Amino acid sequence: MDKSIEELFGMVQDAADRLRGVANATPVMTSRTLNECLGAEVFLKCESFQRIGAFKFRGAYNAMSRLAGDERRQGVVTFSSGNHAQAVALVGKLLGIATTVVMPQDAPAIKLEATEAYGAKVILYDPEQRSREEIARELQQEHGFTMIPPFDHLDVIAGQGTAALELYRQTGGIDMLLVPCGGGGLLSGCAIAAKGMNPNCKVIGVEPEVADDATRSFYCGTLQTVKNPPTIADGTRTPSLGKITFPLVRRFVDSMQTVTEDAIKEAVRVLFFRLKLVVEPSGVLGLAALLSGKVKAEGRAGVILSGGNIDGPTMRHILSIDMNP
Asked: Residues 45, 48, 56, 217: which is the catalytic one?
């Protein structure tokens, strides 16, 4: 990636202009109790209140709104466990673009149903048997679709980065930023935005301990993979960072941390019981790192809560562990 930080940050700013009036300006929540517990000012960027209930709308709209007429007429294809699927489906509905989405057959029901409700054609597959990317490429070649991948695409990355840009403007500035990491689109986009606004802002990516491919990749310098990791954070089950996101993460992220499954569930419970927020497991990774002590909050700490699309059985399982936290 030979683009300068100025060029990349400019792409995020352009994306913010493109999204203005279309994407929700999501709220930033604070908690005195949380601040006292962590010894810092913590600002929670609630992307659970974004359209489709997750940050993914930002990247999908930014990418798809830039398609040429012929590309729009041919339609688009993507692959996703759920949130990007919903985002592409909704953007397709808004822009009049036919969408086809490859989803795992064990995708959360709430995400599958929403994707279909927005009008996408859903192709289910068995993750143990085939690669979602392979299926999507076959559909692309057969039908002439344009591929809008969930993270490894500069326009998608720039769109995701608007979440951090918005957070920075809403708070007047932050000293550190914690961001969930799956394929690295949100993390790299937010890192670009954070460094563009404040070069000294410390950016930390967080992923599940059992899905630590990005963390290992970050520290060893070569791309690592994890196939179908058994994490409750379904949005982080991507096998690896992408060809675009990997170098961006290495370049702009200051450190990577992992959190346990128990820490993830505890963060979901704290948000539910204390702040009255419904956030999916993939969305709480940054807060889980702070609450578990894996990361020490410093100064003004921003945390991206990336989405709230959790189904009933999963939430019931998490809350039933301890109904009186």
From this structure: 56
Residue whose structure tokens are 């802002």: 201
Catalytic site includes residue 240: no
How far is CA 94 from each of CA 54, 87, 115, 269, rounded to the nearest angstrom?
17, 11, 14, 34
Reply yes or no on whether 276 is catalytic: no
pTM: 0.94
Q: What is the pLDDT of residues 282-318, one digit of tens each?
A: 999 999 999 999 999 999 999 999 999 998 999 999 9
